[in-house]
Amino acid sequence: MPTRSLLASIVGERYVLDDEESFLVYGRDEYPRAFSKPRAVVLPANAQEVSEVVHACYRHGIPITPRGRGTGLSGGALPLHNSVVVSLERMEKILEINEEDHLVVTQPGVIVKNLHDAVEAHDLFYPPDPASLESCSIGGNVAENAGGPRAVKYGVTRHYLLGLEVVMPGGQLCRLGGRVLKNTTGYDLPHLFVGSEGTLGIITSITLRLIPRPRLTCDLLIPFASLDKASRAVNRILMDLGIIPAVLEFMDAHSVAAAERMTGQTFPFSEAEGHLLIQLDGSSETEIEKQAAALGELCLTLGADDVFIAQNSATRDRLWAARRAVLEACETTRPATELHDISVPRSRIPDLVRQLQTLTAPLGVDVACFGHAGDGNVHVALMSDDPSSFEEQLEVLNRTVAHTALALGGTISGEHGTGAVKKTHLDQALSPLEMKLMRSLKAAIDPQGLMNPGKIF
Amino acid sequence: MPTRSLLASIVGERYVLDDEESFLVYGRDEYPRAFSKPRAVVLPANAQEVSEVVHACYRHGIPITPRGRGTGLSGGALPLHNSVVVSLERMEKILEINEEDHLVVTQPGVIVKNLHDAVEAHDLFYPPDPASLESCSIGGNVAENAGGPRAVKYGVTRHYLLGLEVVMPGGQLCRLGGRVLKNTTGYDLPHLFVGSEGTLGIITSITLRLIPRPRLTCDLLIPFASLDKASRAVNRILMDLGIIPAVLEFMDAHSVAAAERMTGQTFPFSEAEGHLLIQLDGSSETEIEKQAAALGELCLTLGADDVFIAQNSATRDRLWAARRAVLEACETTRPATELHDISVPRSRIPDLVRQLQTLTAPLGVDVACFGHAGDGNVHVALMSDDPSSFEEQLEVLNRTVAHTALALGGTISGEHGTGAVKKTHLDQALSPLEMKLMRSLKAAIDPQGLMNPGKIF
Q1: What's the pLDDT score for residue A53?
Q2: Which residues of B touch A183 (CB under 8 A)?
Q3: A443 and B443: CB-CB below 8 Å?
Q4: Which of B188, B241, B433 has the CB atom closest to A195's CB atom?
Q5: Domain boundary among B272, B297, B331
Q6: ipTM of the complex, rounded to two decimals
Q7: Domain enclosing residue A422, as ranges
């Protein structure tokens, strides 16, 4: 039976897409350099249909690429090997918000921002906040173990996961974990699936722990003349003040310049080499004000050029719009760019930035670094005005970035996943034994290798 | 070659124990009803020796039972199937405390209290705090994914794990994960090993994330006439005050009575059905005082009989000594007892306690419930004055407790693991598909089934 008929018999003709325009949309994620034409795109309405689709593909040996909202940056949703894209976008209901037990049960296609808004209306809080939160799905967040700025205080997606409903590679619907905060009943299977990038099954329902919503926030922008000074300040903020800010980000001068180019706005002290962008949160106004004052004073004694406190929501929104714009700005304001998602021990950020600048300068490539100073997760944008030589150098550049991160005790992907893009550097990052272990887990759960082929492995 | 010679050739004669006295010690953990004579006990000095011991056992098809400090409550370290006990007690060095990057690298045999003290001397904090913290090892904590009272605010062992060094079932030494807070480089293997109860390998080194040490704590004891009232107060504390206490425990009247019997001290309002024991922490004295006052007022409006604030460290220590004594008190002050470690969604705790009391009363069995009101993890002590009829009823009693927890949306083990004891109820708690998945993971990593045999599976 042709793939189209096979799939249409389950979800209906309307929800199988195989036109060229759809292929252009579903043949890629937001990693700009990769495209792969899918065999077909199917949009199931519920777990039962996902199960039947997977079972049908399994019987016919057809590979499957699960897809949330396609906002990934590592090619995790790239439909390699002539696979069928199973898009979860129609499964966008929040099934339960439980105020007593502080949990939410949601379908995978829900946009993260909608999930945030829905639980916050109940005075609850789901902390993970990837930059793409207005367009990415919670299912994709679980598959990639998404992070975001608030990870420094609140952790990543994994830390909120209680239970999953998953369609296994053979099509069986399986519930893993549950609704409890502490669970040592056998292996904790949800924790194997989070971050497995769709290579072990398709998530059809997610149960997440929530916490009480912090009532108040206060945002600060603090420029330092050097990244070393900013980095020392990060550690002193954490240690001397005895608080963990909700957000503790940095941007270097290249990142700020890119954001200025794109937004047309100017930044105070835009030439500063290390801007810290900090959010405090809590439930007491006087306490937050005291903390902000202490933080500002501490930073001034540590050599900050100035301390800007966002006094109102307009200032705050402008601050964060600039931070969120950096990624897009780096990608769009220069003719040739490549983005990395490096994780290093926090104290090594200045070394990382310095070494990358030294290594790439002779090649005529600029490096912008920004991201999560508090947790050591640095986004590195390589930028050039000469696309053709950039493309030629890219493989060497990428291996150089990976090598630099690893040599500093870090790793090649902090929160964007391995996918199809970073897997070429996996042999640098992992030992043969780790690789073998991962392969044996994959083989145990997906012996035919049909689930999201060409990712990680 | 006899097992003794095989092992002695690696670790030296002195560190192989095969006398009857050692067998009595190493043939059990703290679950009182189970003993199994080991084939031998070996005490390796380092990872290399662990690797050689495991490799030697593997070649000879000898099963292995890894052991931390033997404080487990689910028979996880019970040397079933004539296995060799590999005790990690000699590996008790803290290898690195990193103030800049807020992490600790430790050998597995370190006592958790010693780890706490060592990192707190650097103004850092490792939150997980199982009741046995003065005698249990950090390796055992990782193997069992240990929790403790502070989990309500700070999470369990899993949430602090960054990297592991593990000896695999064939003897290979393997590093998993690393030193970074965010890591999406392939599958997150440390998260498969945490909570796997020694069935996948032996942990020889652990890298844990730390946080800044909270400067101040304030402890409150708040008695309520009923568990319903106490339970409602728990939710209102979390929601209305907008803070998560560091600790949010409860004890029912039976638990308090047992603690009084053992310690010889009396509790205020000891007849109250729901005592809440709360710890606030933070860095600002005025803020904590304000929170404590608001918390006390809130509880009084919700029907608390009184609010006791521990004004000094002597009072605080007495409070916590009583809470920590409950477990031992339940076990030692009655002729026949059995302890369960149930997890339910927080709001179901009153239902759980009521149903257990109703179900067990006709059998002449008392039920004491205490534990982690904030996260839904309840320790249930079944107590009787008639050992012989208790033993006869025990299987039915245990199935009843498991069934009750599961029917309330909970599970049969919150933080004590599955081990040899709870595995008899695993078929109640897990679906056949979940069981099959767990078995396939075990088979992928330990195909010979030599690592901690008879646990979980």
Answers
A1: 98
A2: 343, 411, 413-414
A3: no
A4: B188
A5: B331
A6: 0.96
A7: 334-437
